[in-house]
Write a structure and sequence with these properties.
heterodimer, A: alpha+beta, 3-stranded antiparallel sheet, two-stranded antiparallel ribbon, B: 7-stranded parallel sheet, elongated
Chain lengths: 96, 610
Amino acid sequence: MCARWAAPLEAVMDAIDIETFVVCDDDEEAKKIGLALAQHMGLPEGDIVFVEKLGPGARIRIRGYLHRPGDSYRWLRGVKADDCCSTTEEGNTRTA
Amino acid sequence: MTAAAQRKKVILVPLDPVHDIGLKMIRRALAERGHHTELLPPDLPVEEVVQAIAQSEAEYALIGRTLGYEVSETLTRLADLADAAGVRERVKMVVGGMAIRPEIAAEMGFDAGFGPGTPVEEVVAYVEGRTYRPDDAETVKQKPSIMGNHSYELKEAEIGTLLDAIASEALEWASVRTSPGVERARIRKEMFEVERGEGQDSQRYRHLRDAYLMLCDPTVAASHRNEPVLKTRPISEDERERLRAFVEDDHSTPVKSMRGGVARPAVFVQYGTGCPTMDVAHIRLCEAWGAEGVVHFDPSWAARKEGLLEGYLTHEEDGTLITPQNLSLIRSGLRNHTLWQVRAHRGLNTAETVVLAGEIGADLTKINIAYGSLGGGTDPERLAVDAVEAMRHAAHYGLPFDVVTNEELCGVPAHKAFAGMLIVASMAKKLGARPILQPLFCYSPQVMIEGQMKDNYVDFNAAKVLALRSIIDAPIWPGAPIGFLTHSEDRVQSATSTALHACLAASLGVEAMTIASSDEAYSGGPISSAARVDTLRAVGEGLRFFGQARISPTERAEVWADRLVEDIREVLRAVYERGSFVLAIYEGLLGTREDGAYPGRAGRGTVRPV
């Protein structure tokens, strides 16, 4: 198994944003959809960064932080793109 | 010009109906280097293309494809026909353009593929069999100078006289006073000197450290005994080692330049995620995307404690703690060409922070008595004493500093904030320091109420720069960040607003600017790395768009500039007549409670006579 693409979430420096346009009646519904979408896609602690309802729906950006400042950053573990690696039980990638 | 024996024969093939600009640029570059080129008409059927290649003496066929429909089918057919015609043994088949990805080109059997954004020089290098190296101008950067050749000449006679008198009074007042902050800064400076000579284990160093800790808040002193500090976590040696490896790995990564070969303001970004490790990661990406300077943000709670914490500490909330170790760690992660500012503009450690900044290798700091008192929560008397000491240290270490005017964000009108800034700048000049004026480019409470930005954001911001230039010949560094209060949570709007303000700053010919990320208005979490790229990219595009062209303010800019100068004059007259800069701050001459300015309380009662 090869490195970063085998455990892609570990390569994310801090946050993942999902941006899309959802069909909805108002901002509140858009937020509910956004949070449900975050949960559905496995985004941790999803939060609505931006929402604006115009026309048939809302432009929305949803965010989840994979690494917050002060965490132990998995991208800092020295794994390189062409290193061989294994995934531990905790899901951490380590160089072989 | 390439030697005759090395000149190549190249046939260029635009497969689209009209999109042959890229190939024409490549053809021109190849021709300039002496290669023989032939450009086929666009939109030939692939059969005719293969026939033309076969009949030519070309060694290379450069095939361009922009349109995205039937790409695979067309290119596969072209490759198959070329194989069948036997031209592949003689001609290297290369495909490039907007619709091309190098990996897809390889799958189809082409000799090379160049995707969108490929520099012409890279294709030329391929034809010539050279390894492509990006232009040195894009990768090898020099640390920019942002001080220019300014004389600090005061151009308005009366304003000059008033500033001279007010600054002299303030310095004389401060010269017979001291504070724990002043004394700690002097001890800290001596500690650095002793550490370099006799080492940290020497008796003299230990005595100095004991004297230092006597002047510290108990929680700060505890950190020097390796006791835990609330809201913080020590950064382990292993984490520091991994950070060093991360920086080393990134060492040779090319970086973008926003300059494009012309004089532009240096672009600064702010960092201060709370964690020095994450800060370094963000700094590295900002450097790569064109930032030329970085500004250290520290938490306000730490600035209100006497003394600086000790150790490699990561912090749970916004703002990265200023400790000697944290600053050294961050310093080790900066590229050589990056300007580094450590702020010392408010709080009880102003003078000591400048000492640390100077000793650890910062290029710039930030000091302002008026803002630090009226918007930064520090007692005016205490900050005046400490800031004068800080300015002396800044002069000693050769650290220029900006004089920030963020009290505008509290509601203080620009002319009052500018009066305070000019007084502090005048004090700095008398102390041999090098101040930089920092007007805000912002949608301030003043303009929300008075309507100066009802039509556009250009005129009033331009008026600020024009007014300051009519008063003094000094470097100007709008901040901080530019476009303050114009940003929304929408990243496109936010990055666009910053980019437009950046273009205005460049158009006005200022020396530097500090920009936000596109997360500026998002309060739900830390600034993300992607948000930093958003804005840097937008600013880069904006600067590229305008180049050396200029934005023209309307005539209102001049009118408002004249008005600002007159209002500044009135404020300075009032401060002069009051006879005390410090009392003028307490009494609201540089911003009243009604404006939104409140003299701070941190450090009140700690100033004593020398």
